[in-house]
Design brief:
The protein is an alpha+beta fold. It is built from 16 helices and twelve strands. The chain starts with a helix and ends with a helix. The relative contact order is 0.16.
Length: 598
């Protein structure tokens, strides 16, 4: 009867009265129930207030822990709670949309720019000679002026930069001049001088072409995808950590129960031996041996209690629950078996294509290449050609002035060029060199990530097969230990086996059952790590990353083309490209930008 109660207690320690449906594992990774859940960026609501007078509960005994209010928790529910409440996700969920807004900032460079203003001024000028006073014999001349404010050439100016680098400008101004008294040399007084001016400026080398002028937009776009993949990586890591912590609780709970049962059974054995000693049927050595095992199991029970508390605290941290929560977490998801084992070749291919770190690094490489092109363009000659066309109208009233302006009789034409260059271009060359080094560094980082992921994948792959073997051996060991315990218990009751043999077989059986459950948890943790290593645990668990932030949409922020994915590089930007970039001279970089501009 003791053996059956012992087996039932330990085997049932990780299960609950509620039966949960057996979960299915895919051909490679551990998955949750495939309910499609979207991980968005909306801000969650937290209540982080803590009562200052709150007293944390003291450490509980094993019996008290097992009698706590039970919180039945499936693995899928734990993952969902983590995605909703995990503090790391709560912090990083806003980063993609923060980076996304930088694209609108870059687009604003091509928005029209409006300047509008006016300036009125009155001047009283003393007359110094007869010529200045026009012979009228007055001591001063008063002048009223109205025109453009300081900093502007006209009252109205609209400028716009095209994505080709072309700059267009439209100016309109009307200057008013009234001199009192009227001089002999003023034919129109008061005078309204109206002008309408069109200007066009086109870069010839530096800054010419759609590719060069859109580099800022493309770099911001790549930065958005970097942050998006980094957020996805955080979510994927959180799912892995939750799954590992979930199985840790199962192992820790089994260990606690086995130690508690061991303490109870060894306590009974100790009482039997003490009774025998009182009746002169044994010696003090048998009692001391029974007491030693009893105290040893008590010490292990304390460690098991702390281990379970640590495991539950870790899971609560991941799913965003306070540590002082008084419930006992009872996992209800059944462990998985060996029906499907991973395939190495498939795992490698999946990891290279789907790991968020690699996608983020590819976007970083793309941004570094764009930055290099932008700095190389800065080495070109800054030569700009411009043309202007102005219509003039002069009259003694505003309406006559604008009427003359509309007749298009009095016009000005202008053509010219402007050239600017810093001698030596020390700063420009240094920035280009830095951009080259950064691109090489990003390439090296990609190779490092691929190497690290391959090692991580290999470790997870071997862990699955090794823990599978260990689990099979532990199951056989448990059965053998159970048979050994039955035989020694019968012999002990008949007085044909000494106490030492019985106690050792009892402890061996307890450890065997505990180690089997630990092996089951280790196997499922290995499956979780394999799912993470292949980059599949997010999507195959039924979750996806929401594209835009809920609320303000991109088209409400700026008017322009929608975001497009960062180009996918064949073979992750082959290493041969690094050797192609390394020896490039500055004139070759300039020539490359000229070809793109054309």
């Amino acid at each position: 009867m003791v053996l059956f109660s012992l087996s039932l207690l330990i085997m049932g320690g990780c299960r609950t009265a509620r039966n949960s449906q057996q979960e299915i594992i895919s051909s490679e990774v551990l998955t949750s129930t495939p309910t499609h859940t979207t991980v968005g960026y909306e801000e969650p609501v937290y209540n982080d207030s803590i009562d200052d007078n709150y007293e944390f509960p003291p450490a509980s005994k094993a019996q008290d822990i097992l009698k706590k209010e039970k919180w039945y928790l499936t693995l899928q529910d734990a993952v969902i709670m983590a995605l909703d409440n995990n503090k790391d996700i709560a912090v990083l969920r806003f980063l993609p949309d923060e980076k996304r807004s930088e694209i609108a900032v870059e687009y604003s460079d091509f928005d029209p720019n409006l300047n509008l203003g006016g300036h009125w001024q009155r001047t009283d000028q003393q007359i110094a000679n007869a010529s200045s006073g026009s012979g009228v014999g007055i001591p001063a001349v008063q002048t009223d002026l109205f025109g453009a404010p300081p900093g502007l050439t006209e009252q109205l100016r609209i400028t716009k930069k095209m994505q080709t680098g072309t700059k267009t400008s439209l100016y309109y101004g009307s200057n008013y001049n009234l001199t009192n008294p009227t001089g002999n040399f003023l034919l129109v007084n008061p005078s309204w001088d109206s002008r309408l001016n069109f200007q066009l400026e086109q870069p010839i080398f530096k800054g010419r072409g759609r590719y060069v002028n859109r580099l800022g937009i493309e770099i911001a776009n790549a930065g958005y995808y970097v942050s998006r993949h980094e957020f996805q990586q955080t979510v994927s890591q959180t799912i892995r950590d939750v799954e590992v912590a979930y199985w840790d609780i199962i192992a820790a709970e089994t260990n606690l129960i086995s130690r508690q049962v061991g303490v109870d059974e060894s306590g009974k054995t100790l009482k039997v031996e003490e009774s025998k000693l009182a009746n002169g049927l044994n010696s003090i050595s048998e009692v001391s041996q029974a007491r030693e095992q009893y105290q040893s199991l008590n010490a292990e029970l304390s460690l098991a209690r702390q281990s379970l508390s640590d495991s539950e605290r870790n899971l609560r941290r991941l799913i965003g629950i306070r540590p002082e929560d008084g419930r006992r977490i009872v996992p209800t998801t059944d462990p998985l078996d060996f029906n499907n084992l991973p395939v190495w070749e498939t795992g490698i291919l999946s990891a290279i294509q789907q790991r968020p770190e690699l996608e983020a690094q590819r976007s970083s490489i793309y941004a570094a290449k764009l930055s290099l092109d932008r700095e190389a363009n800065g080495l070109q000659h800054d030569l700009n050609a411009f043309a202007g066309y102005t219509i003039n109208g002069l009259a003694d009233s505003y309406d006559k002035s604008t009427s003359t302006l509309s007749d298009n009789q009095y016009t000005d034409w202008s053509l010219g060029f402007r050239y600017e260059r810093r001698l030596g271009q020390r700063a420009e060359k240094a920035r280009t060199y830095q951009a080259q080094r950064k691109l090489l560094r990003e390439k090296a980082q990609l190779r490092k990530l691929k190497h690290d992921i391959r090692m991580e994948l290999h470790e997870a792959y071997q862990a699955i097969y090794s823990t599978k073997d260990v689990l099979q051996f532990q199951a056989k060991r448990k059965n053998a230990a159970l048979q050994q315990l039955k035989a020694h218990e019968e012999l002990y009751k008949k007085g044909q086996a000494n106490l030492d043999l019985y106690l050792r077989s009892q402890l061996t059986h307890l450890n065997a059952m505990r180690d089997e459950k630990k092996a089951i948890a280790n196997y499922n943790q290995a499956l979780s790590r394999w799912a993470f290593a292949t980059g599949n645990n997010l999507y195959q668990s039924g979750f996806s990353i929401e594209q835009p932030m809920q609320g303000v949409q991109v088209d409400q922020v700026f008017s322009g083309p929608q975001l497009r994915p960062v180009p996918v590089f064949q073979n992750d930007l082959l290493d041969s490209e690094v050797e192609q970039i390394l020896p490039l001279e500055l004139d070759q970089l300039i020539q490359g930008n000229e070809n793109r501009s054309n």
